[in-house]
Design a protein that fits this description.
seven-stranded mixed sheet, 11 helices, alpha+beta, flat, 338 residues
């Protein structure tokens, strides 16, 4: 059997792999094959490692190999301490067996991108990313380039170049319109890979954040104070993101504070309206970040009086906020059928 054809993750040099039902078979440098009990998960957290993986490793007749899409450093450390092997879609490998050992504790630098796009338009730049955001928010729809440009409020030239870049990466596909064979229609192809590449870009941006104390006893009261500001001065633009926002779509994890996006120049007005005090993060009940593209606020929605950031922004926030937020990111993904 050709190992490479049946294993869907990139393997380190000299390693061959295949999957047989619930068993992973690995072979290093043409040596003897090693069998591992397969355990797959989208998100690996400390809780799942302790409650599910470790008990399985104790009763399994074969060593366990965890394959995950995303994992926290603490969860990976727990597996290492207990001798459980894992492979991550971000490129990490930690595999230990009787005569096999692989330790590649580093993620891939970035998802693979065709070389010819190295100097082309970045589809995740401020204005260009509007196209990916719109398509993710409408995953079953098809659009002409002109329609996408209108929805995203960009030029047709920008829309065309962005879609070309996304198509080359395999994230979207274009087909000729049945009504007009001269017109191309665009639709989302692989939302999961599009989100993962965007996450890599998002993590590198390091969005500056301010930490405020507004006298709230818990996140629910902080949200209430925000809604009161919205009622008293609707001209102040803001949208709740992060765990607090995701919890309003699906309460997978309780937030510790409230993360709020504001457009450039609005944070001072919001601080005055909330009578906010700047404090260290550990004392904050609200975090404020500036959204560089005010257009994104047009995609916000209202839930129980709270202005909520769009689901793409919620996913980006939660996928980069640490272990607890990973579960919320998965909940947003499931809600949107990405």
């Amino acid at each position: 059997m050709d190992y490479a054809q049946v294993f869907d993750l990139e393997t380190p040099a000299g390693i061959e792999a295949r999957v047989e039902h619930d068993v992973v078979v690995l072979r290093a440098n043409g040596g003897a094959p090693h069998r591992f009990r397969l355990w797959r998960t989208t998100t690996l957290t400390q809780a799942t490692a302790l409650a599910e993986v470790l008990p399985l490793s104790k009763v399994s007749s074969e060593p366990v190999l965890v394959i995950y899409d995303r994992a926290s450093p603490d969860a990976r450390e727990i597996l290492q301490q207990h001798g459980v092997s894992y492979v991550g879609r971000e490129g990490r490998w930690h595999v230990s067996g009787p005569s096999i050992y692989i330790d590649r504790d580093r993620p891939k630098r970035s998802p693979s991108v065709p070389q010819r796009l190295a100097h082309d338009l970045n589809p995740f730049a401020k204005r260009a990313s509007r196209l990916a955001r719109w398509l993710l928010l409408h995953p079953t729809e098809t659009y002409a380039i002109r329609e996408l440009a209108h929805h995203a409020d960009v030029s047709e030239a920008t829309a065309s170049r962005t879609i070309e870049a996304l198509t080359a990466r395999g994230h979207v596909r274009t087909v000729l319109s049945e009504a007009d064979r001269r017109t191309k229609r665009v639709t989302l192809a692989r939302p999961d890979e599009l989100l993962e590449e965007w996450r890599h870009e998002w993590e590198r941006r390091r969005v500056p954040t301010e930490f405020w104390r507004i006298g709230a006893r818990d996140p629910d009261e902080a949200l209430h104070l925000l809604t009161e500001v919205g009622k008293s001065d609707p001209t102040i633009t803001w949208a709740v993101g992060g765990l607090a926002g995701a919890a309003m779509l699906h309460r997978a994890v309780d937030p510790a504070d409230v993360f709020v996006w504001v457009p450039p120049g609005a944070h001072q007005r919001l601080a005055a309206a909330l009578m906010a005090e700047s404090v260290p993060r550990r004392r904050a009940d609200i975090r404020i970040a500036v959204q560089r593209d005010p257009w994104v606020f047009e995609l916000s929605s209202e839930h129980a009086g709270v202005v909520l950031a769009d689901p793409v922004q919620l996913w980006l926030d939660c996928s980069t906020e640490g272990e607890r937020a990973l579960e919320a990111a998965d909940a947003v993904r499931a809600t949107m059928n990405w």
